[in-house]
Amino acid sequence: MLHRSSPAYVGLTLLWGFSFVLVRAVVDGFGWATAVSLSCLLIGATVAVLAVLKGASLRYRLRWRRLVLLGTGIAVQFIGLSISVAHLGTALAAAAVGTVPLFSAVIGQMWGLERITGTAAAGLVTGFIGIVVVVLFPAGGISWDFIVGMFAGLVSAIAGAMSSRYAAARLSSSGPAELVSASFLVAGVLTAPLALLLPGPGDADLLHWIGLLLLGVLLGGVGYTMELGLRESSGAPFATSARSGATMVAVFLGIIFLRESISFGQLVGVLMLIGGCLLVLGLVPSRSAPARRR
Predict the structure, then answer these.
(1) pLDDT by residue (tens digit) across 90-103?
(2) What SS3 state is found at 128?
(3) Are 247 and 95 in contact (CB under 8 A)?
(4) Are 242 and 227 in contact (CB under 8 A)?
(5) Torsion angle, CA of 108/111/117/120, rounded to 10 degrees?
(6) At what angle do helices 236-256 and 264-280 cross, to 10 degrees?
């Protein structure tokens, strides 16, 4: 199963990684509030259109109270991501938001959805130590921008983890494409008033609009559609791990192409974070795996 999904997995990892670069460009042009609202609306619409083109029937028979709660969580997730990118840049924002699997495991344990195994516990320790190392060794010293950006990124990760767990616990009977498209459309509507109150710099040009379309349609809508396909073919942990790989892609793009500063200690912390996430997701090969296959 793994070898058949690898091309889609690599493509999804690259899409998620490049999305951090586009988030930065879109936020710079539109401001974080407008960027969040428009991106969520485009993602929701694209997922719906692609599902219909694939022959799915979208009935949207969802409980609106639960859907609003889920949409609120997604809105907070994207707001935190946009603010984090604006204050930290691509690389460090990706590291902060990359803690989603860690918080998801903790929330799953608290809500009784799953039990944290010994391997997952080791991953939690490794991952959280990694993010602490990222915080303690900033390249330019600790500043208000750094504090605000890291806080916003971690809030985004917690909101993303809670949203995914809530959807699995309370909305699992809904179709995945239907649920994703509806929740993002609700998130876009909920954040629209913020876009009116906080319009941003107002100097978006053609390139910013192209970036918004790429973010919402290609990296957002197509990316989520690919992730749903991977979940069906290879399971949720394997599909979710693409986001951990995307963290490394975003860090690489931020350092090499965007010339962002990151200390050696922070790079070590990011690697620890990714390793911890893979342990939590159960994707690190164990010694007993060959024996089981025999």
Answers:
(1) 999 999 999 999 99
(2) helix
(3) yes
(4) yes
(5) 30
(6) 170
